[in-house]
User: Which sequence fits this backbone?
């Protein structure tokens, strides 16, 4: 190596060194919650790259690419409209069945996909986890963020469908971001728990499909939550997706009752589950490379 | 800023049952938990525990090149894993000043569907580089990897050589302050390892700190100013490489290198070496052989399936890690029997090595395609002078490593 390159390198090293915190401490974990926000912020570009990779890979692998984001909820909507709607005559808050189902399948598909991707993320990245350090939290987090791209495509499709049926969103749509946030937090909370458990225990994988299916029918996707008797609504709200999905339907179409109580219960549950999820994930994060 | 790059205090790491715990079953964990409620779920079933590292106190200054040696399971890899923050210690703590990178963990985060360019950015980000840093070094990385023409092609279409070159280029351009190198875990062929060592030499000349885990005694004594010997997770010796290496080799000489359970191996494992036997010209097992005599090596093993072709090579190293003899025929393919087993005999009609100790590395694979199994220090061989050389004075490796038959004619 010649002198110039050497001095260049020395300069780069000096620059990099000054950009880093003076000393990193490596120690066993103490305390229940020790989220290192400055560090997470330093790694923000990695989230961007992970999401970007997910997109690239998926759109390269499937011929239909972006259409897949719409096709999956669309086909489910057709089946639901036919069987639960036309044949079983499920109440739909006065909405056309396609809108009634699609407006619920939109948040549901996002949730189910994010949950499954997040759950597998530690195992999928075992090669990386055992070789290099970065905050492991970024893996389930970026799975949940990746899902938002498909969600957006699917959302635009829903708006087109609504235009076709001449259903226009009212002022309630302004609250939609709140429900979306609640949904992202729900997916993140469940994703943190499941990704940790899945990394530690090899039988979690087999429980996943059942869990997702069970969760689908415990959420007001195929039916409105109004079929649940009023005195049991609070119990129903313990499933955070109940509040989220009813909230989506209501704020998008303006049909039905605002799901106030349901959402409050759901939001509380989510915050508790998320705090627990972060604590659990942190507890195992430091030694996860020994397991996967 | 102080001059300390790494400082550890009573660094310890405990594993449960076996070297790596591995994934358990949730149903077992839950059963345990119901039996003794209150115990943390993650501990799972109580299993036999062992300390991979125990009370390691270590101080490495900026610019120091420290070699780390020790037998398998001595805690070398665990030490690097803790220092690179891949896993946390059970007790004790370490303080690191500066950016940490590990050179040989190449290809981390590469995705076959993505192009070379995309993978460069992705892998760089995973290794801890910012987007701007990668952009700034992008041309340099591509030039180093010599793949300019293919940079926008998905890496699944790359040859394995191109893949490794790009992956290595990305890792090599991270330019960390502290470089952790685990040669034991290194992938790639011997030529590639040489390249890595070359890069390490460059890095050490720019005044950066290196922790170098290796079985290559030659490289350690060449590159390192200081050497750390680990034994059963503790620091057994720490000092100048000459002294520490001598200590280590003395301790090794008493042990049986042919026990395949202790082998230090790499490779995909599609074909695995199970035994290596050293025989003399009459076919009797031996561990010492006279110069100029016939030597036979019998390598036995097992493949995953009978339908796999492989080639075999053997390298002889001196105790100080100098490669002396290479046995290989790239066009001689072997194939396991129907029951997946194989036993191969190699015959060297006249062993021309000078007296001394030699260590054998055995490799099985397909040249340039895949390493099936690669066992370092699979066997040790002592060459003695014997009576088949026309010399009675004692010969040593100091005079040369190879002896040749001689036809001397007086012309005038």
Assistant:
């Amino acid at each position: 190596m010649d002198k110039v390159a050497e001095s260049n390198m020395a300069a780069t090293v000096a620059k990099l060194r000054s950009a880093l915190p003076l000393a990193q401490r490596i120690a066993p974990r103490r305390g229940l919650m020790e989220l290192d926000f400055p560090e997470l912020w330093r790694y923000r570009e990695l989230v961007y790259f992970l999401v970007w990779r997910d997109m690239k890979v998926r759109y390269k692998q499937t011929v239909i690419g972006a259409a897949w984001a719409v096709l999956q909820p669309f086909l489910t909507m057709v089946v639901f409209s036919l069987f639960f709607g036309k044949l079983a005559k499920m109440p739909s808050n006065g909405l056309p069945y396609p809108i009634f189902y699609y407006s619920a399948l939109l948040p549901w598909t996002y949730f189910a996909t994010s949950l499954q991707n997040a759950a597998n993320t530690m195992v999928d990245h075992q090669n990386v986890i055992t070789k290099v350090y970065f905050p492991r939290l970024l893996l389930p987090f970026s799975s949940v963020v990746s899902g938002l791209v498909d969600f957006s495509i699917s959302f635009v499709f829903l708006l087109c469908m609504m235009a076709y049926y001449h259903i226009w969103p009212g002022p309630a749509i302004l609250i939609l971001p709140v429900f979306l946030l609640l949904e992202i937090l729900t997916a993140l909370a469940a994703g943190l728990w499941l990704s940790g458990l899945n990394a530690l225990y090899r039988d979690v994988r087999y429980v996943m499909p059942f869990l997702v299916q069970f969760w689908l029918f415990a959420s007001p996707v195929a039916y409105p939550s109004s079929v649940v008797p009023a005195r049991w609504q609070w119990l129903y709200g313990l499933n955070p997706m109940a509040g989220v999905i009813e909230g989506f339907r209501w704020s998008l179409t303006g049909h039905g009752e605002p799901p106030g109580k349901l959402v409050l219960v759901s939001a509380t549950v989510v915050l508790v589950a998320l705090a627990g999820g972060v604590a659990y994930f942190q507890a195992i994060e430091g030694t996860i490379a020994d397991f996967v | 800023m102080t001059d300390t790059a790494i400082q550890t205090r009573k660094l310890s790491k405990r594993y449960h049952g076996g070297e790596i715990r591995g994934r358990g079953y949730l149903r077992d964990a839950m059963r345990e938990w119901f039996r003794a409620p209150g115990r943390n779920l993650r501990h799972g079933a109580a299993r036999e525990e062992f300390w991979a590292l125990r009370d390691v106190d270590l101080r490495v200054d900026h610019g120091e090149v420290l070699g780390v040696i020790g037998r398998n399971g001595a805690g070398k890899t665990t030490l690097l894993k803790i220092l690179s923050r891949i896993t946390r210690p059970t007790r004790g703590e370490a303080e690191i000043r500066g950016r940490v990178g590990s050179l040989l963990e190449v290809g981390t985060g590469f995705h076959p569907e993505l192009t070379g360019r995309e993978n460069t950015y992705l892998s760089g980000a995973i290794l801890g580089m910012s987007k701007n840093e990668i952009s700034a070094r992008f041309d340099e990385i591509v030039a180093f990897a010599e793949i300019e023409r293919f940079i926008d092609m998905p890496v699944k279409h790359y040859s394995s050589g191109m893949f490794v070159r790009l992956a290595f280029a990305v890792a090599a351009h991270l330019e960390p302050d502290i470089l952790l190198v685990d040669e034991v875990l290194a992938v790639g062929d011997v030529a590639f390892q040489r390249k890595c060592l070359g890069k390490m030499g460059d890095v050490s000349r720019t005044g950066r700190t290196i922790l170098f885990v290796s079985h290559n005694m030659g490289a350690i004594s060449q590159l390192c100013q200081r050497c750390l010997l680990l034994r059963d997770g503790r620091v057994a010796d720490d000092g100048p490489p000459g002294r520490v290496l001598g200590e280590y080799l003395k301790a090794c000489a008493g042990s049986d290198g042919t026990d395949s359970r202790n082998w230090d191996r790499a490779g995909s494992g599609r074909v695995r070496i199970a035994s290596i036997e050293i025989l003399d010209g009459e076919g009797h097992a031996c561990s010492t052989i006279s110069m100029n005599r016939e030597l036979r090596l019998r390598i036995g093993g097992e493949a995953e399936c009978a339908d796999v072709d492989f080639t075999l090579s053997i390298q002889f190293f001196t105790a100080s890690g100098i490669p002396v003899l290479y046995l290989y025929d790239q066009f001689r393919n072997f194939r396991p029997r129907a029951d997946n087993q194989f036993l191969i005999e190699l015959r060297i009609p006249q062993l021309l090595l000078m007296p001394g100790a030699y260590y054998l590395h055995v490799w099985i694979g397909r040249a340039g395609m895949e390493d099936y199994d690669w066992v370092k220090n699979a066997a040790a061989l002592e060459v003695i002078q014997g009576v088949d050389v026309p010399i009675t004075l004692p010969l040593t490796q100091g005079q040369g490593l190879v002896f040749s038959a001689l036809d001397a004619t007086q012309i005038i």
Observations:
- Chain A has one domain: 58-290.
- Chain A touches chain B through 53 residues (CB under 8 Å).
- Residues 97-124 of chain A form the longest helix (28 residues).
- The two ends of chain A are 40 Å apart (CA to CA).
